[in-house]
Amino acid sequence: MLDRFTLYISNLGSTGVRSSSAKLKHRTLNWILFWSTIASVVWVIFLLSISNTVAAIFPLLSAVCIPLLFFTLNRETKNFQKVLNIGIAIAFFVPAMVQIFHGGFINSGAAILWTILAPITALILKPVIEAKITFVLFLIVLFSTALVEVFMHIPFVQLPKSVIILQFIINIISVISICYFPILHFSNETLKARRIIKLQNNKIISSIEYAKYIQRASLSSEEELSASLNDDFFLFYEPKDIVGGDFYWVAIKNGRVIIICADCTGHGVPGGFLTIMGINHLNNIVKEKGITDPSMILLFLHYAIRESLKYSSESITDGMDISICSIDLENNLLEFAGARNKLYYFHDKLEVILPTKVSVGEDVADVQFEKHQITMKKGDRFYMCSDGYIDQFGGPFGKRFGSKRLQMLLSEINSLGIKEQGKIIEHTMKDWKGNEEQIDDITFMGFII
After folding, report:
1. Are 100 and 145 in contact (CB under 8 A)?
2. I need a labelling partner for 435 at 20 to 30 A (CA). Which of 303, 313, 361, 407 fits?
């Protein structure tokens, strides 16, 4: 029976509320109103028992009005703010009137203590700015009531000391009850919500962790990279989240080594889905269809992505920025095509090959990806990276790393071994980032021919 009653009080007026936070506020307000009603009834009985009918009028009004607020709240959930404001107003008005018409601070057992319910209720259930305003009003009510006692004649009947002490105890118990039990309910419900959120979060994290293994399995392995590039390479791969929107891919087909560094729209789970899609399409385009021309790979990938996502011309927002190197080792020829991703290479000096300024999957009519040819010489160094490296904020002034700083870094370390260069590039970024949050996935590849 008690459980059913408790459940009824908790759920009163919250049946149509979908938001868990809104339900929690409704239920907490219900308990504040419920305990306020009980305390008001106790005060009515007490004041009538000592024949102070005038002072008893005010808690009686409270005892009548609060159940009406219950009824109002139960009719429509949109009445919540109205009920809350009226409840706060009652908390301001009733204690002050009881104290004034019951002989002042001492005689009433400091009934003004009840006024603390107003800022506490606002603190729990209202936005911060409104809670602050309510606290200021609370101080004004206290000050005003004190002035009334000092400067105005108020009805006063000397009560026995035992009665005054009893009233003070009733006030303290009432205020503590009205504060403690709703706050306890609010805290318990908050803890329950946190436990549920934590459980759901753990499930989500576990799923994403498993998705990470699936994504990593789709990426080219260290063994594949070593076999394709004779171990003369480095790879710095640092997703922003558990799964990332960057990917790297390597394959050998028709006597050519195909190396790809790609940055998909977004990061995290959405970016991770796009990486899997991109890798699957590349497997089909290069390994099954045998296409090794980098500009044609981009073109086939461009239309494959658009078809997979079934874009209309108005809704295209997802895509990939990619750099592709197709290396003909027999003829010492490297062909490059990029979609918003550059190629850096170093022979006698650092050179930058600019990409086509169109992303794979972007809504561009008759797109053509430009192809560049480089006659390679022994010892040439090539670098591809996603924009997460140059866009990262850090350093002493919190600025972007930037393309110029990257080119200076590559020029400074060009004489070192490629593995050593990779370590410096990785450590440089970690030092640059410092305590700044990583803003995007980072992929950086370098190799020597």
Report:
1. yes
2. 407
pLDDT single digits (tens) 151-205: 776 655 667 778 778 878 877 887 787 777 767 767 777 788 788 888 888 888 8
CA triplet 141, 145, 147: central angle to 5 degrees?
Answer: 120
The mean pLDDT of the chain is 84
- Residue given tokens 């003004």 in the structure block: 112
Q: Are 35 and 193 in contact (CB under 8 A)?
A: no
Task: Give the Cα separation of 367 and 295 in Å (integer).
Answer: 11
**pLDDT tens sequence across 271-315:** 888 888 999 999 999 999 999 999 999 999 998 988 887 754 454
Q: Decide which of 4 and 434 is more confident.
A: 434
How far apart, in whole angstroms, are the C-alpha atoms of residue 189 and residue 183?
10
Cα 449 from chain centre:
45
Instruction: Using only the alpha carbons of the chain, give its radius of gyration.
Output: 36
**Residue 63 in this model has a pLDDT that exceeds 80:** yes
Neighbours of 195 (CB within 10 A): 10
Domains and CATH numbers, the chain: 2-198 (no CATH), 210-448 (3.60.40.10)
Q: How far is CA 325 from CA 319, 403, 406, in A?
A: 19, 20, 20
Instruction: Tell me the C-alpha distance between 142 and 92, whole Å.
Output: 9
For residue 110, what is the DSSP state?
S
Residue with tokens 């494959």: 304
> What is the number of other CB atoms lying within 10 angstroms of the CB of residue 178?
26
Stretch 219-229: mean pLDDT: 84
Q: What is the pLDDT of residue 99?
A: 84
Q: Which pLDDT score, from 0 to 100, does residue 74 have?
A: 61
> What residue spans of 152-267 are helical by DSSP H?
161-218, 222-229
> Are the C-beta atoms of residues 343 and 336 closer than 8 Å to each other?
yes
Report CA torsion sign: 118, 124, 125, 127. positive
More confident residue, 160 or 317: 160
